[in-house]
Specification:
59% of the residues lie in helices and 8% in strands. The chain contains twelve helices and five strands. The radius of gyration is 21 Å and the shape is globular. The relative contact order is 0.11. The protein is α/β, with parallel strands linked by helices.
Length: 302
């Protein structure tokens, strides 16, 4: 299933849809999940493969720490949760916003928590704190496994402490393309085989030799996946190609946005440019915050 025009259009529609939401965060989260489930009902779980190919890329037009950014993160949580459901697990998106995993799921004989990550392509240096491997280990509570889902092209390719931590703490770092393969496997051979393959991948992490080496880690994951795909290994080949194509599509999307921003800024008058610069530094809101600070009464003696 190569990248299709309608998959790219779906991405654009979702980006625009998240910008229109104006209710409370909890209400909007429910709307996102309901919309995603409606798509799956209408078009079958194959639609999840389209989402998985793109959702690891945070849209460039969403400002840092904006409501759109937070809702996009909830969207990726929903995609991962529905993916786990599609391969045979019972899965829910957790309502809590901090100090817990985003998704909890239970299979026929194992349970897990999952955390979904999305990054802007313009994001530069990422360190181990961005991936929260140690935190995810703690968030599993009494469940068997912990999964960190990331865009494959944003993960370290050589040496990184996150791989050592993942193996030592039995946290499975897995990519969106890997989950897309499991959805395709469920469509072809049924959810039991897809769930079994996921379980085998989860179990292999603890058997790997603790190392910072990215190649060693991913070789262990990929060999296990291909082994259990068996005669359906062409699914893996298809998704590797699709991952490259989707990255190129997202690159073009991001570059178009940045070019449009460049053009918009160049068209501003001198005063408009100064106003935009002041807004970018949040001068007025920071000044208002400073004025609101009060001494309080904590130094009172009674």
């Amino acid at each position: 299933m190569p990248i299709q025009i309608n998959a790219i259009q779906r991405r654009i529609q979702w980006i625009e849809y998240l910008e229109t939401l104006n209710g409370s965060f909890d209400e909007n989260s429910q709307r996102i999940l309901a919309k995603l489930r409606a798509e799956i009902t209408l078009e079958t779980v194959e639609v999840l493969i389209h989402h998985l190919r793109f959702c690891g890329a945070m849209p460039e037009q969403y400002s840092h720490d904006s409501s759109q950014e937070k809702l996009y993160s909830k969207y990726t949580d929903s995609v991962v949760s529905e993916t786990l459901s599609a391969i045979g697990l019972s899965s829910i998106v957790v309502d809590a916003r901090a100090d817990s995993a985003d998704v909890q799921a239970r299979g026929s004989d194992f349970s897990l928590v999952a955390d979904a990550k999305a990054f802007r392509l313009s994001c530069t240096a990422k360190n181990q704190k961005d991936f929260k491997v140690q935190a995810l280990d703690g968030w599993r509570g009494g469940l068997d496994y912990a999964i960190l889902v990331c865009p494959i092209y944003q993960l370290p390719t050589r040496l990184s402490q996150i791989y050592y931590q993942a193996i030592a703490r039995n946290v499975c770092i897995i990519s969106y393309p890997h989950l897309a393969v499991l959805v395709a496997l469920a469509l072809r051979r049924g959810v039991k085989q897809a769930e079994l393959t996921l379980h085998k991948i989860l179990k292999i992490v603890a058997t790997l030799h603790p190392s910072k080496n990215a190649v060693d880690y991913w070789t262990g994951i990929n060999r296990t996946l291909v082994k259990f795909l068996d005669k359906d290994a062409n699914i893996w080949t298809t998704e590797k190609t699709a991952s490259i194509e989707s990255l190129e599509a997202v690159k073009q999307e991001s570059l178009r946005y940045l070019q449009s921003e460049r053009n918009r800024l160049l068209a501003l008058s001198h005063q408009e440019a100064l106003d935009a610069l002041i807004r970018s530094y949040r001068i007025d809101s920071r000044a208002a915050q400073i004025r609101s600070v009060e001494h309080g009464e904590l130094l009172r003696e009674e």
